[in-house]
Design goal:
This protein is of the alpha+beta class. The protein is built from 13 helices and 33 strands. It has a 16-stranded antiparallel β-sheet with strand order 18-19-20-21-22-23-24-25-26-27-28-29-30-31-32-33. A 3-stranded mixed β-sheet has the order 2-5-4, covered by helices on one side. A 3-stranded mixed β-sheet has the order 6-8-7, with helices on one face. A hairpin with a 3-residue loop joins strand 18 and strand 19 (438-447). It is elongated, with a radius of gyration of 38 Å.
């Protein structure tokens, strides 16, 4: 840059001295030479002299300065021919082509935007002075990402028509790793505790996945803010980060970080008060602020108090309330008195509710989930409840809520819900595999958001090692305007238990028709409650299988001899459910509970009369840093009205496998028949505990550690068709990965059985296509 300025100054002085040693003259004509792209009119517009004006040596300086300042020209000279001023110009070239190579981490579009901000783009005037500016701008982008050994080389090639090709070759290097972190100045809190608060760490076993050892300016700033927050939440009101020193090794691949802090004194809370216009009684607000005299000062508790006030006022329509905090510090006693100052602002009303990015879903499908109504007073709790209800739709991945005044000073606001839709497969043709079903061929037409209406339509066929299935299902979640849903299902299947690890004594052909209504009840904040009422019909034909190599079991043979092989029942369906999850796909908070009772009533002499009662539950609770605790439970019980021993064996419950107790082969736990094959039981119980942990790979992947327990039993020891004893609960532990793919959801688990009994069939690896991740 300095060299360029010196050359320009010398050139400028030479021009002045050589050309304008002569006397002043009146300019009658102005001729411009050397133009290629720039028009003469453009040059005239920048000249500080016009025809008929006198040209003096001082004026020549102004002419040259004005033309240089345009940035269009490399060389400018002035000459005189009689009364004619001749201006000779050498235009700077334009950037004809701009190429970037070698970049992968930063996309070319982003780099082009950075260069355009410093006036470097195709069609712009090329200035050699900007070469260094190009390098530094791009290097700064990489330095902010911790890539201190990045390199940028710029090569310029001249083209025809006074153009140049600017070729930028980038070597992105690697992200510098933090080799050591030193914290200086801490006395009250140990360094180890402080280091845990930082988003930056030194290399360790998990840093390959977490990348917390890779330095960036953004991570450093976030780490320092966490450090300050840690102190502020423990009473250190005046903590200060005095300095941060980042030392880079000569190879620019490693970082040594030193943080110097001044802890200051620890302060306690003397008390607090609320002032201003509170709208609601102050006593109500005071109850929501969990601060007591003598407590250590905590910024988090103070912020929670401000949020409680804000939420309370927001629920009354004052969504733009401003809560400010005044601190009165007594240095002698190291106490602080807090004053929450409330300015409620104007009460807001809903102008419009808008939905954004719902390309596949009709507005009405989302709008009918709204609890907040247009033209009504805004309620933050109703806005959040509406967001939660939209999130529970099975075709919505995520929802973001925002609102803003219609115009400045207006009391009306527009509400915006920005949704991220999940893929709704219209047609599937797949070959899958699971430990129970082995290879599965399936074809289907499935739409969980049929034509954007929110209705579900499914036409499915599958064929596996143990079952051939055909089914049609249709669900209208708003069969009535009041939100009563209706689901219709018609299925036909052929079942061969020999392919499912259970009794090989029979096969079954089954036909089912059911209609179920879901009735919303007891609208709670944060939960959807429904009663299920329905009816159905089933027709089952059992075909006994008996051969010398594979004889029919005593249990199956005795039951069929007594009751026959053809069964027809009318089904009465009753149930109740409560869904308080924060979303339907990969929930992180809340629970879902379902209790169901099916009554199987006789139609004719070929009918049985029995009932099944089932309960299932899933629970999610955030722990810390994106870790989520999970729990699940399942209970199933069935018995006949005419005697417990008459409960049909083909309705038995089973356990083991990916949907119950992982680590054991699917359906193999519980009682066994006379051929020592699993035969299931009339009572099933299984449960699981887990921890979902962040995977740092993809939002479509969820990973967790789990502990499973469960088994299947007969509830009486003398049951005629019962089989042998089940033994104790079985336990297993392992790791699971749930992956949403374009081919459907995939569940994979690796588990170890903890207490297998002799004869148990254990299996470490389980795999299933088409799992439910709710």
């Amino acid at each position: 840059m300095k060299k360029y300025i010196i050359v320009c100054a010398v050139l400028f002085n030479l021009l002045i001295s050589q050309v304008w040693a002569a006397d002043t003259f009146v300019v009658r004509q102005i001729e411009i030479e050397g133009l290629q792209r720039v028009s003469q009119e453009t040059v005239y517009s920048y000249l500080p002299i016009k025809k008929g004006q006198s040209l003096t040596p001082d004026k020549t300086k102004s002419i040259i300065e004005a033309l240089y300042n345009t940035g269009f020209f490399d060389h400018i000279s002035l000459a005189r021919s009689g009364d004619t001023l001749i201006i000779k110009l050498d235009e700077r070239p334009t950037i004809g082509q701009l190429k970037i190579s070698g970049n992968s981490y930063l996309h070319t579009d982003k780099l082009m935007t950075v260069m355009k901000s410093v006036n470097i783009a195709e069609g712009r005037i090329y200035n050699s002075v900007l070469l260094e500016k190009i390098k530094q701008s791009l290097l700064n982008q990489y330095y902010q990402l911790g890539r201190y050994n990045a390199r940028v080389d710029v090569k310029v090639t001249h083209l025809d028509r006074n153009r140049v090709l600017v070729n930028i070759d980038i070597s992105e290097g690697v992200v510098a790793k933090v080799r050591r972190i030193n914290i200086i100045g801490n006395h009250a809190i140990k360094t180890k505790a402080l280091a845990k608060q930082l988003e930056l760490t030194t290399p360790g076993l998990l840093t390959y996945f977490t990348e917390t050892d890779r330095f960036s300016q953004e991570k450093l700033e976030a780490s320092l803010e966490k450090l300050r927050s840690y102190y502020l939440d423990r009473g250190y009101l005046k903590v200060e980060v005095k300095s941060t020193q980042v030392s880079i090794t000569p190879d620019r691949k490693s970082i040594f970080l030193t943080v110097v802090i001044d802890e200051g004194s620890q302060y306690k809370v003397k008390g607090f008060t609320i002032s201003g216009t509170t709208i609601v009684p102050k006593k109500e607000l005071v109850k929501q602020i969990h601060i007591k005299p003598g407590d250590l000062f905590s910024r988090k508790v103070v912020i929670d108090g401000e949020k409680s006030i804000t939420d309370t006022l927001g629920d009354k329509g004052y969504v733009f309330a401003v809560i400010s905090m005044d601190l009165k510090i007594d240095e002698s006693t190291k106490e602080v008195f807090l004053t929450f100052r409330v300015n409620p602002g104007k009460r807001a009303y809903v102008h419009h509710i808008n939905f954004v990015d719902n390309a596949k879903t009709n507005d009405v499908v989302l709008r009918r989930e709204m609890v907040q109504m247009e033209s009504a007073v805004v309620s933050t709790s109703q806005l959040e409840e509406s967001k939660r209800r939209i999130s529970l739709l099975p075709f919505i991945r995520d929802v973001k809520l925002s609102y803003a005044p219609v115009e400045e000073g207006s009391q009306d606001i527009d509400i915006n819900y920005k949704v991220t839709e999940d893929d709704a497969a219209q047609a599937t043709l797949s070959i899958g595999y699971s430990q129970v079903e082995h290879f599965i061929f399936s074809a289907g037409l499935n739409q969980k958001n049929f034509l954007g209406t929110g209705k579900t339509l499914g036409l499915n066929f599958s064929n596996s090692h143990y079952q051939t299935f055909m089914g049609i299902n249709y669900t209208d979640p708003y069969y009535t305007p009041d939100g009563i849903s209706r689901s219709i299902s018609l299925t036909a299947s052929q079942f061969d238990p020999r392919g499912a690890n259970v009794s090989s004594s029979y096969t079954a052909d089954q036909y089912n028709l059911s209609v179920v209504y879901g009735i919303p009840i007891a609208l709670d904040q944060g939960a959807n409650n429904r009663i299920q009422v329905g009816y159905g019909y089933e027709d089952i034909l059992i075909s006994p299988q008996n051969s010398v190599s594979n004889p029919i079991s005593t249990q199956v043979n005795d039951f069929l001899n007594q009751y026959g092989t053809h069964f027809q029942q009318i089904t009465a369906i009753l149930g109740i459910s409560r869904d308080a999850r924060n979303r339907a796909i990969f929930p992180t908070q809340g629970s879902i509970n379902t209790l169901g009772l099916n009554l199987y009533l006789p139609v004719n002499g070929h009918s049985l009369d029995y009932y099944t009662l089932t309960y299932s539950s899933k629970w999610y609770h955030p722990i810390v840093n994106d870790f989520v605790a999970t729990a699940r439970g399942y209970l199933g019980y069935g018995t006949a009205f005419s005697g417990t021993q008459n409960f049909p064996f083909f309705k038995n419950y089973y356990a083991g496998g990916i949907d119950s107790v992982r680590g054991y082969t699917g359906n193999t736990l519980g009682p066994r028949d006379s051929n020592d094959h699993p035969t299931g039981g009339n009572f099933a119980a299984n449960a699981g505990l887990g921890v979902i942990f962040p995977n740092y790979i993809s939002d479509n992947l969820r990973t967790s550690l789990f502990l499973d327990a469960g088994n299947v039993y007969n509830t009486f020891s003398s049951r005629k068709f019962g089989g042998t004893n089940s033994g104790p609960l079985r336990y297993a532990t392992g790791i699971e990965a749930d992956w949403i793919t374009p081919f459907g959801p995939i569940e994979i688990s690796v588990a170890k059985a903890l207490n297998p009994e002799p004869g148990d069939d254990t299996k470490r690896f389980d795999f299933s296509l088409g799992a439910n991740f709710g």
